[in-house]
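Minutes, project huddle
Topic: does the predicted pose make sense with heme C bound?
PN asked that the exact inputs be recorded in the minutes so nobody has to dig through chat later. Recorded below.
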Amino acid sequence: MNSKAIIFFSILFLFALLLIVVYLNSTDPFKNRPSQKAQTAGQEASNPHAHDPGLTLFEQNCASCHGPMGQGKGRYPALLNNRLSVDQIKAIIHKGKGEMPPFPKFKDQDLTILAQFVRRLQ
Ligand code: HEC
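Predicted holo structure (tokens), as shared on screen:
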């Protein structure tokens, strides 16, 4: 084989390789694979507390004032990095504090879940 032929086949080979790469990228048969979808969904939900029952309770009862991530809003205080104990938070939720209304509806178990969630906010 002379050198021209070698160059010719090298270019042909590279071109074929390029075509294969383009083809694989455009028609990834695993694109819609459920596990990958789940991964993407997990990445979108960058919230570290996802699927936490405390988060659900917080979103339903507290986020309207304290913000969706407890970052506070206007005259409502942020709850991030708070130094309150679980028992102190439970008491505040149960009895209210200043402008914050009391939540007598929560059972002790829910208060604990909420208080532990609030303590972890950062
Ligand atoms: C209607 C608005 C409102 C809602 C709803 C609300 N809060 Fe509050 N919260 C406040 C206000 C206002 C304060 C500040 C009270 C004060 O210090 O006088 C406060 C204070 C707190 C504190 C004390 C913060 C600190 O550093 O002293 C905690 C903990 C707290 N809230 C948790 C919660 C939790 C958990 C919920 C949901 C169960 C909740 N709050 C729902 C308005 C609200």
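Observations noted during the meeting:
- The pocket of heme C is lined by residues 61-62, 64-66, 76-77, 79, 82, 84, 89, 92-93, 97-101, 103, 114, 118 (CB under 6 Å).
- The two ends are 69 Å apart (CA to CA).
No decisions taken; revisit at the next huddle.
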